[in-house]
Request: fold
Amino acid sequence: MLACAASLAGCDRPPAARRRPAAVVRPPGLLVEVRLREWGIDVADSLPVGPITFVVRNAGHEDHAFRIHDNGVDAATGEVEPGLAATLTVTLTPGRYALECPVKEPEENEDHALLGMRRPLHVVPR
Ligand SMILES: [Cu+2]
Reply:
């Protein structure tokens, strides 16, 4: 009887009617901030296994991108303009990955990874 009284407000409507459509779809998994700049990638050195959504912000003055590869994964964002952000969702298993900016500008003799935009990432069991 007490349980019925406590939920009276919702009792007259079917469960589906109580659900509201989500205004924003939250990306799956852990959200991890990544900051791209000249010339580096700022991100955690190690992360737990599972689905991870990298929120990649370009804090630099040139276009950059974010790629994660090795250990059976190869995924990347498109180029991100300065001041903008992109997301990249991957599912990671334990191991060592390489993070880099894949942007190359041969006409300016610039390879962003070689300029410093690369670093390892260790993914560890929870
Ligand atoms: Cu870059």
User: Anything to note?
Assistant: The chain has one domain: 26-124. DSSP finds three helices and eleven strands in the chain. The CA atoms of residues 9 and 29 lie 33 Å apart. The mean pLDDT is 88.
